[in-house]
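Before going further, it is useful to explain how the protein records used in this thesis are read. An example of such a record is reproduced below.

***
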Amino acid sequence: MNRAISTVGAAKQTDKATVATNPAYWHGVSSGKMAAIEPKDETADVTTGIGAAALAYRVEAALPTGFSTLAFVKAIGLYILGVLGDVDTTGVSSPYTHVFTMADDVPWITFFSELDGWLQANGASKIDELTLEWDGPKPLRLTIVAAGCTFSLPVSITAPTPDEILGDFFTPVGGTFTGDIDGSTLADWKILGGKISLKRGLTIDYLCDALTPGNIDVGALVSLVTLRVRAASWDDYRTIVTGSASGTAVSADPVIGSFSTKFVHDTDSLTIASSRVKYTAKPVEADPKGGPVELALEGECLAADSTTSPVTVTLVNGVATY
């Protein structure tokens, strides 16, 4: 068997009980177990009369889905919706503009995967974490971590037409990368790479009537951003430490800034932005070999008020609806 013969897909469910029969999006992967099952067994703590254990039982069967891949132009919309929960789409013909924001809950998704003949579907799933990473001009990469409630081994999986096995994907080349350490006036930043993580803190309930999960609930959204910035001066680092570019004492308050990153493919685009980011930065270390200073900014996106999403993702592509 060959592990390179592998693909993954997903489809949004109308409700928890209605598991999708086939994927709406289908593409390759770089790594991961894809749709998987992880049984957990325990040895019974009961004597046998011979001084050795003899009985065992199965306590649960987790249904995780996890994979890393490229940020494909079409499929990424479903995954973003799956972690944020709400989308507003405009446009009467291609290109369509999808604006994703945080909701109290996220949709149920069926994940499908094939590994050289092993076909599996994890239904009634929710996304726990979505991570976007990039390094220099290399393509934007996507990692998904999810958990499901329903297990099946389909006889066959019918991929959508067209699928994204040869699909387009986003890159930072030609994109726009801006930020502000202590405000919302965005200016160009010299970005070397970065990572954006959206986490939903899933709670998985194993009810007493089944080995597979009975329900999955989401927690508070945690939106984290790491940006590697080529620094021309100490102004941004000093602002983080003291509260201003001319400060001389440690600030009693955290610094709240903003950022916007835009990735593109032809006329398609993916923009992730936040107007309130709590920034910190790791101290810069000396190096006998020399070299320019790289500022490692670490931020957490915060809500501006009780109705505003801490992070907004805008996707422009040819998909009419998610």
User: Anything to note?
Assistant: The longest strand covers residues 118-135. The mean pLDDT is 97.
